[in-house]
Amino acid sequence: MSHTYSEFLPSYSVGVDCYKAIPEIVKPYGKKAVAVGGKTAMEKSKKALLEGIKGSDIEIIDFVWYGGDSSYENVEKIKNNPSVQKADMVFGIGGGRAVDTAKTYCALYNKPLFTFPTIASNCASCTSLSVMYNPDGTFKEYSYHKAPAIHIYQHKNYCRITRKAYVGRNR
C-alpha cells in the first residue's frame, strides 16, 4: 500500500529588520492581530513587534499568555479570550508549545496564523503538526492541521537560546 504525505511550508522573512515587513505581508488578512505566546518570548519580542508595525494600519490589540502547555484546555481558554475573539489574525510567539497552542487554535477556529519563533530548538513555527498534552503535562496526541502558518518571521531573537531552555522545558 502506498501513502503520500505532502507538506507545504510557509513563506518566511529573516533578519534583524524583518518585523518591518509585517504590515505588508499581513495586510490581506485584516488589521487587528493578537499575540499569543510565552511570557518571556512576548516580553522579549514586544518592543520589536510594535516597532515593526509602527505607522501602519496593523494593530496588536493584546498579548495573551498561551497557558503554559499546548493542550486543548488552553486552546479553549484562548478561544474565550475577548481580545482573541476580536482579532482578525494571530501572531504565535515563542517556542514549540506556545506556537503549537496558537496553531491549534487557528486551525480549529479558522484564523490566519503568523509565527514568530524565539528559539531554534523545534519546527513548530513551520509545520502543520502540533504536539498536544494533557492538563497534567503528559503527552496526549499529535494534532495534524491542513496547513502551517502563513508566514514565519525569524528575527534576531530566534537565534538566542538560554541555558534553561536548552537544558529543559522553558514555559
Concise account of the structure shown:
The protein is of the alpha/beta class. It has helices at residues 22-26, 39-53, 72-79, 82-86, 96-109, 163-167; strands at residues 11-14, 32-37, 59-65, 89-94, 113-117, 129-133, 139-144, 151-154. It has six helices and eight strands, in the order βαβαβααβαββββα.
Q: Could you characterize the architecture of this molecule?
A:
The protein is an alpha/beta fold and 171 residues long. The chain is built from 6 helices and 8 strands. It has a 6-stranded parallel β-sheet with strand order 1-8-5-4-2-3, sandwiched between helices. A two-stranded antiparallel ribbon has the order 6-7. Helix 2 links the parallel strand 2 (32-37) and strand 3. Helix 3 (72-79) crosses helix 5 (96-109). The N and C termini lie far apart (41 Å). The mean pLDDT is 89.
According to DSSP, the number of beta strands is: 8
Q: Taking all residues together, what is the mean pLDDT?
A: 89
Strand order of the largest sheet: 1-8-5-4-2-3
Q: Helices and strands, in N-to-C order?
A: EHEHEHHEHEEEEH
Largest sheet: 6 strands, parallel
- Span between termini: 41 Å
The geometry reads as globular
User: Could you estimate the helical fraction of the residues in percent?
Assistant: 25-40%
Strand content: 25-35%
Q: How many DSSP helices?
A: 6
